[in-house]
Design brief:
Layout (H helix, E strand, L loop, with lengths): L1 E9 L3 H19 L2 E6 L4 H7 L5 H8 L3 E6 L16 H10 L4 E7 L12 H4 L3 E7 L9 E3 L4 E3 L5 H17 L3 E6 L5 H15 L5 E6 H10 L6 E4 L1 H14 L7 E5 L5 E4 L16 H14 L2 H16 L17 H14 L2
Bound molecules: 3-isopropylmalic acid (IPM) and manganese (II) ion (MN).
The site of 3-isopropylmalic acid (IPM) has 6 residues, from helix 4.
């Protein structure tokens, strides 16, 4: 396999974890005989500083011409609490998703046996929890009609049947590869857009009898996720609900630094951690690179070779078992290691495994 990877490191801890992703990806390609080429491009606050645009045309071209994007994080405190600013780092991420047509965001929520004690939830509740949230990514309030003035503002949550059908199709396909249980999360008791989601989902579920489909209001789903996370296998929901629920899901595992995601659709797929840019930690070599490294596993799995992805996951598990971890998950925080040491340990492990 010959892979061309667009590297969008972005802001805050982005460049540090990006380096570790590259290290691991290089090790996997060397071991399995794949060729890989990385092309870096600007995004987020870094791009605003350099060229005044959070997703410059040049970056779009690099992404379009690549086989996959390895994305890290965007966001910078200089832009927070400044509702007056018109150009913001996060717009770079949204523009990338929209321009590449990435309508489906796959966010697996899994627990790691060696980390269960870090979860804020009791072990008997979280142990064995393992589900996937399929978040719609290019519609809803994020992209609907907006208006902002000094005394009136609104966002619109709009969905077409076509947009709902294509994301539900991804969700049914995912459920088929897992335990065949799909939960459609909406707010159909209040929102018109949710009622269309539910109508389309009911129609499709009648044509998909091999999958058990149930429906849950989003408020109830957020409660169920911490009360009984093992209930879920695959969940599908609109953009904003998915944003909120997946942050909630990420703490179930014990650290936000652990969850990767894949965004797929029409154009080049993007693989990225679900956590943000954690500006306070930038340059300190303390950020957990595992979500970025697990994004590399998802990248390989997307292109088919299960063995490559498996090899990354095995190395990640081994690093945690060996206690080679950043402070957020280290069993003994006084023995925690740096971001770079975790990436080096994992790539050495991959190189040595034959
Ligand atoms: C995420 C992030 C983004 C989102 C932000 C940075 C725009 O929170 O990927 O979940 O809201 O989608
Ligand atoms: Mn989010």
């Amino acid at each position: 396999m010959k892979l061309k990877i667009a590297l969008l490191a972005g802001d805050g801890i982005g460049p540090e974890i990006s380096r570790e992703g590259v290290k691991v990806m290089t090790a996997v390609c060397r071991r399995f005989g794949h060729e890989v080429e990385f092309v870096s491009a600007l995004v987020g606050a870094a791009a605003i500083d350099a060229v005044g645009d959070p997703f410059p045309e040049e970056t779009y071209n690099v992404c379009r011409d690549a086989d996959a994007v390895l994305f890290s994080a965007v966001g910078d405190p200089r832009f927070d609490n400044r509702p007056d600013l018109k150009v913001r780092p996060e717009q770079g991420l949204l523009a990338m998703r929209k321009k590449l047509g990435l309508f489906a965001n796959i966010r697996p929520v899994a627990t790691f046996a060696s980390l269960i004690h870090k979860s804020p939830l009791r072990e008997d509740i979280v142990s064995g929890a393992d589900f996937v949230c399929i978040r719609e990514l290019t519609g809803g309030m994020y992209f609907g009609e907006k208006y902002e003035s000094d005394d009136h503002a609104y966002d619109t949550c709009a969905y077409t049947r076509g947009e709902i059908e294509r994301i539900l199709k991804v969700a049914f396909d995912y459920a088929r590869r897992r335990k065949r249980h799909l939960t459609v999360v909406d707010k159909a008791n209040v929102l018109a857009s949710s009622r269309l989601w539910r109508k389309v989902a009911q129609e499709m579920s009648r044509e998909t009898p091999d999958i058990t489909t149930d429906f849950m209001y989003v408020d109830n789903a957020s409660m169920r996720m911490i009360q009984d996370p093992r209930f879920f296998d695959v969940m599908v929901t609109e953009n904003t609900f998915g944003d909120i629920l997946t942050d909630e899901g990420s703490v179930i595992s014990g650290s936000m630094g652990l969850l990767p995601s894949a965004s797929i659709g029409e154009g080049t797929p993007v693989f990225e951690p679900i956590h943000g840019s954690w500006p306070e930690a930038a340059g300190k070599n303390i950020a957990n690179p595992l979500a970025q490294i697990l994004s590399v596993a998802m990248l390989f799995e997307h292109f088919g070779p299960a063995e490559e992805g498996e090899c990354v996951r095995k190395a990640v598990d081994a690093s945690m078992e060996a206690g080679v971890s950043t402070p957020d998950i280290a069993p003994d925080p006084s023995k925690a290691v740096g971001t770079d040491a975790v990436g080096t340990w994992i790539s050495d492990f991959i190189a040595a495994e034959r």
